[in-house]
Amino acid sequence: MARRIAAGAAYGGGSIGLIGAAGVGILLAEVQLAKRSVGNGDAPVPPNGDGWYGLAFGRTEPLRMGMLGDSLAAGQGVRRTGQTPGALLASGLAAVAERPVDLRNVALPGATSDDLDRQVTLLLAESGRTPDVCAIMIGANDVTHRMPATESVRCLSSAVRRLRTAGAEVIVATCPDLGTIEPVYQPLRWLARRTSRQLAAAQTIVTVEQGGRTISLGDLLGPEFEAHPRELFGPDNYHPSVEGYATAAMAVLPTLCAALGLWPETDHLDVSRDEDMLPVAKAASAAASEPGTEVSAARAPWALLKHRRRRHPVPGETGESGEATPSEAHQI
Fold this sequence. Notes:
Layout: H1 2-10, H2 25-37, E1 51-53, E2 63-69, H3 71-74, H4 85-97, E3 101-105, H5 116-124, E4 133-137, H6 140-144, H7 149-166, E5 169-173, H8 188-209, E6 213-215, H9 217-227, H10 229-232, H11 242-259, E7 276-279, H12 280-288, E8 294-297, E9 302-306
Parallel strand pairs: 2-3, 2-4, 4-5, 5-6
Antiparallel strand pairs: 1-3, 6-8, 7-9, 8-9
Helix pairs in contact: 1-7, 1-8, 4-11, 5-7, 7-8, 8-12, 9-11
């Protein structure tokens, strides 16, 4: 199905509906119930995380990083700059590179994939500030707004292609697992999970084909969110909490660093960690169901599956580092 979605996007095929059974009365009733239960809590407007991170390393030429996507990329639900995923990633990247990082976050809460064109244009508009690396988190709103899957991945493919053409490395955190949202019940939960995974796999295919890398963020958060919903979901029962965003950033950071050559990179596959080389479509399918799997291009039509993230429980607290401002973020 993921390959069909990707092919439909590439060749201008018709819409492949992700929620074909949504007309069934019980599903419609559950959708309305979920809407009343989700998103009604206090989710503050995310702080603007633009600025320099890692000033402890001096004011040398910085690495330039772009953050694109929806509310997950913007950090909807947290109150402090240092708690947003962009700030966490920029701080971590600065620490690994031992260079300051100039972050520009153009993500928009509520955005679907068709907003990526506008976001890429904003990011590339300023001459001389082309990003070295970009992280994209997108997909959840595509599912909830029932955006045609072919259109969704077509927009993502175009965004990745434009950024790669401009010279930026691109990492896409694929569609989160909406089946883990606590107020969603069966059979809507099953349908949301299946839909999310299909979209995530299709996103992986088109991203790798355009020269980017993906990390299966949705299924990383899925089992952990399901096991610890009170700790990893925010007060609106939809967006991650501070600990949830830290979990996501911890998964994305190694791939971000590897894309810039700052992480040990090798074609050697660690069989003990279920790493493998597979055709792109099979790699995408495997990544969609395996937490924290990175997919990157190998020799066409093959792709590498790697597991770079640390596998341990999320700490119960984040300390005071969440209060950091961009100029202080080297302390995180």
